[in-house]
Amino acid sequence: MKLNSISLLKTEVEKIFGKRIQSSSDCQTLCNEILRTSDIKISFNTIRRFFNLMKAEGSPSSYTLNALCNYCGFQSFDKFILARQQNVLQEEKAQDPVLLNFLILFFKQIEVCKKNDLTYLSLVQQTIIHLDQHTFIIDSFQREIAKTKNGQTFYFEQFVFVDKLNSYYGAGLQYYLNEKKTKEAQLFGYSLLCYQSWLTQNTAGIEKYFRKVMQQGINTSVSHSVNARYFTTQLFYADAFSLDQDAILAEAKRFYLSTLKLKDNNLTSNCFEIIISEAMILTGNYESALFYLEEILKEVKRNIPSYIEVALYENICLLKAIVFANTGKKMKAYEILEDINPNKFSFLSRKFMNILYFSTQMF
Predict the structure, then answer these.
(1) Which domain holds residue 69?
(2) What percent of the chain is helix, strand and coil (3-state, nearest 5)?
(3) Considering only CA atoms, which of 33, 51, 52 is closest in space to residue 181?
(4) Residue 9 lies inside a defined structural domain of this protein
(5) What total number of domains does the chain contain?
(6) Does some domain include residue 38?
(7) Is the CA virtual torsion 132, 137, 139, 141 positive or negative?
């Protein structure tokens, strides 16, 4: 059983690596790639032995197996084996492999001229909802569309699936990061993995992904939503390690005010103000969060309601209620909560938002 699992791991590593590992040069490149993406040191000869390019005296060590599994996006070799077993069972249930190919072609072959193409966005949304009911094809689907421009831009970047961040969407981010190497993409992906680690209280993960994000730095030429995640990553790191957050809050506000004129008018639940105010609330910076919530409300009032994402307004209201509940304004919080309809929360974060909603009602 273990030998079969090791063989599967070899195949998985080669899939992530992007080619068969057949030479010493490939092994050295893989060593460097593992160190770059996982911060794990594994020797050149260990890789050679693993891929049968050098004589091995025994089976690979647990350290080697866990390191390679980490590179592939799994926490350990045991978790990899469990995932493969579950995939086999799920794939056996699959009745129509044509479905997977069709969904992949939808991202590969359709040319989309603009990011806010409402028809395509609607189709992507329906695809995500459909996939959530057919989880046995999600891993193969994410692996393939991570290689496509539409998959990167729409599935991963515009439809951030918070409710599945600790599940298949979070695993899919590893494929995305391996395929899209731009500084903006790396900042985006690693910041979400840091967020995932903070939510699951994984301090090792927070440390690891914080350093990845800091390596990318902030850049006014990238989208404001991605820059927001640069600051949220710092907040989650500071909160996890009990560090002062005042300097981060001040820097974020300076950056925001200095770039208001350049700001892309992105009125969605994935905009700068919502991303950063949510992180501020989660880390206990309620007054700072209120500033950004008031700013986004100004934008909402300046726009025609039909063009505003319904979930955005519900998010703003809930986040304001949380701020009021935690700053001694409980009556204001209750008034807002009475008007909130949880059914209007985005399907991408409905479970998460409902947790916040019900926890606020307990104040």
Answers:
(1) 2-80
(2) 75, 0, 25
(3) 33
(4) yes
(5) 1
(6) yes
(7) negative
